[in-house]
């Protein structure tokens, strides 16, 4: 069931601690809501948990804020928006692509690059934050969703 | 490629003739042309200057025709089919493809940071994302729609645009307003961008010619009156509401405004609106009906005036 849960302070701190250890991110600016066991949403609005509960009496809540991250086992993978919103706080595991690599990345392709790192990396190109990839020894795995991918140029 | 060969029904022509008279030829010429490629810079993610520079680097010629609204842009270059929605800048949420007249409702509503705003029929999200940008992702937007399919599109668009101050709800708009009234929810501002017969969208959606039907106009008019009336009940005193449609049919526009003026009397007033494009006064009579002179403060946007789609909007203030 797609149950939506507002994380309490302690639960939010656990997420921030994971983000800090992976990317150096200190603070998530707003309420974090969780749908299912892994999808995390960031809400920066003025409604608090009590207001949201009152609102639920009036209508079914489909979504709160923006999908910004996914919990995968003990790690966190940021979405494109998550990387854009929190990108200015990132101090580690950031990987800059060149133009050719960035085009392949936005087409949804994995990149055959030895980064010397393992685990999640935030991908950038000339100031654009392009989500998160997973580095292994030989490559960076791609998670760009289909509806956000560049299409092959039509000939 | 869109089929542009649908013919307007005789009754539609007759009604538009009554509205436009001698200008009918100019109207017909304009609606036969495809619409301009217009976009709105998503200032939640990038500034208009930066976006313009990036798009010009791709070889696109960008105009910003409105000094006070640099986020409103027209792409003057000829683009391939679908190219405007396939660019990296679009995929990253740096702009929203939106018709110029559709941007006017939010300009009239003038959302401010920190406000509580209800967007009753929010999908697909062009105006919702525009509201969020004006609010700088602060305050709260309740964005509602009744259709699950349309809500998916709304969610996808608000996500791409990085809207973080939003709560998306699913309910019939009128029923939602009743629930809000019972539970004492009141809003600073409300957008009622009502479901309508779409006469103004013939340039981008020529199939509307085929679907156009006078019975639908009557049914929609009734729905719009209930929707607007329900929304006004949950507007804070001093709060403002914009009612808009993308149709020219007076039954869906001035008649709806006249209806709520009679219902709410001195509890509301119609506000003057300042828009960056030419608009005409609301009409005060149609067929056998006469409307209050206050209805003249509404804005009619005709395609031939600004090379846009057609639109209607009115701003209403809750006095008490």
Q: How are the SSEs placed, and which strands pair?
A:
The complex is a heterodimer of chains A (155) and B (320).
Chain A: E1 4-6, H1 9-23, E2 31-35, E3 39-43, H2 49-56, E4 60-64, E5 66-72, E6 75-78, H3 80-86, E7 94-96, H4 99-106, E8 119-125, E9 128-135, E10 140-141
Parallel strand pairs in A: 7-8
Antiparallel strand pairs in A: 1-2, 2-3, 3-5, 5-6, 8-9, 9-10
Chain B: H1 10-20, H2 24-31, E1 37-41, H3 48-57, E2 62-63, E3 72-75, H4 83-86, H5 88-91, E4 95-97, H6 104-109, E5 116-119, H7 126-135, E6 140-145, H8 148-160, E7 166-170, H9 173-182, E8 187-193, H10 208-211, H11 214-232, E9 235-245, H12 254-264, E10 268-271, E11 280-281, E12 285-286, E13 289-290, E14 299-301, H13 303-306, E15 311-318
Number of strands of chain B: 15
Please name the fourth-level CATH homologous superfamily of the largest domain in chain B. Vaccinia Virus protein VP39
- Helix content range of the residues of chain B, please? 25-40%
The SS-based structural class of chain A is alpha+beta
Number of strands of chain A: 10
Q: Which percent range describes the beta-strand content of chain B?
A: 15-25%
Brief characterization of the structure:
With 155 residues, chain A is of the alpha+beta class. Chain A has helices at 9-23, 49-56, 80-86, 99-106; strands at residues 4-6, 31-35, 39-43, 60-64, 66-72, 75-78, 94-96, 119-125, 128-135, 140-141. The mean pLDDT of chain A is 94.
Model description:
- The complex is a heterodimer of chains A (155) and B (320).
- In chain A, 25% of the residues lie in helices and 32% in strands.
- Chain A is globular.
- Chain A has 155 residues and is of the alpha+beta class.
- Chain B has 320 residues and is α/β, with parallel strands linked by helices.
- Chain B is built from 13 helices and 15 strands.
- The model of chain B has no long low-confidence stretch (mean pLDDT 96).
- The chains are: A alpha+beta (155), B alpha/beta (320).
- Chain A binds chain B through residues 30, 42-47, 51-52, 54-55, 57-67, 80-81, 84-85, 106, 128, 130, 147-151, 154, and chain B through 45, 80, 86, 88, 91-93, 114, 116, 137-142, 144, 151, 155-156, 158-160, 162-171, 176, 179-180, 183, 185.
């Amino acid at each position: 069931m797609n149950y939506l849960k507002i994380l309490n302070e302690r639960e939010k701190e656990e997420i921030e601690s994971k983000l800090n250890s992976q990317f150096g991110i200190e603070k998530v600016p707003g309420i974090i809501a969780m749908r299912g066991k892994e999808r995390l949403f960031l809400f920066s609005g003025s409604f608090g948990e009590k207001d949201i509960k009152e609102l639920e009496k009036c209508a079914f809540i489909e979504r709160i804020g923006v999908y910004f991250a996914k919990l995968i086992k003990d790690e966190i993978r940021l979405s494109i928006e998550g990387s854009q919103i929190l990108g200015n706080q990132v101090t580690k595991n950031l990987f800059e692509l060149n133009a050719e690599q960035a085009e392949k990345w936005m087409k949804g392709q994995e990149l055959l690059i030895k980064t010397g790192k393992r685990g999640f990396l935030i991908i950038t190109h000339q100031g654009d934050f392009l989500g998160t990839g997973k580095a292994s020894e030989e490559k960076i795995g791609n998670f760009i969703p289909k509806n956000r991918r560049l299409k092959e140029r039509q000939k | 490629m869109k089929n542009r060969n649908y013919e307007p029904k005789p009754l539609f022509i007759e009604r538009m003739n009554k509205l436009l008279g001698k200008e009918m030829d100019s109207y017909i010429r304009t609606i036969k042309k495809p619409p301009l490629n217009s976009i709105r810079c998503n200032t939640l993610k990038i500034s208009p200057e930066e976006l313009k520079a990036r798009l010009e680097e791709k070889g696109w010629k960008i105009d910003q025709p409105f000094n006070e609204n640099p986020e409103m842009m027209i792409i003057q270059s000829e683009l391939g089919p679908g190219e405007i929605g396939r660019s990296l800048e679009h995929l990253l949420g740096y702009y929203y493809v939106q018709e110029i007249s559709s941007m006017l409702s939010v300009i009239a509503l003038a959302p401010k940071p920190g406000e509580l705003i209800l967007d009753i029929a929010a999908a697909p999200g062009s105006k919702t994302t525009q509201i969020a940008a004006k609010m700088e992702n602060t305050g709260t937007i309740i964005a509602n729609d009744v259709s699950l399919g349309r809500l998916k599109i709304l969610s996808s668009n608000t996500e791409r645009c990085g809207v973080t101050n939003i709560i998306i709800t699913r309910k019939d708009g009128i029923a939602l307003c009743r629930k809000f009234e019972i539970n004492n929810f009141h809003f600073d501002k409300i957008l009622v961008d009502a479901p309508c017969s779409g006469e103004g969208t013939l340039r981008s959606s020529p199939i509307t010619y085929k679907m156009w039907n006078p019975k639908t106009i009557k049914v929609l008019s009734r729905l719009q009156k209930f929707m607007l009336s329900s929304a006004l009940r949950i507007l804070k005193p001093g709060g403002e509401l914009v009612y808009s449609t993308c149709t020219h049919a007076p039954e869906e526009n001035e008649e709806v405004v006249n209806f709520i003026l009679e219902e709410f009397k001195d509890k509301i007033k119609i506000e003057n609106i300042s828009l960056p494009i030419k608009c005409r006064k609301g009409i005060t009579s149609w067929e056998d009906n006469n409307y209050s002179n206050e209805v003249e403060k509404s804005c009619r946007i005709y395609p031939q005036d600004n090379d846009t789609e057609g639109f209607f909007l009115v701003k209403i203030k809750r006095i008490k």
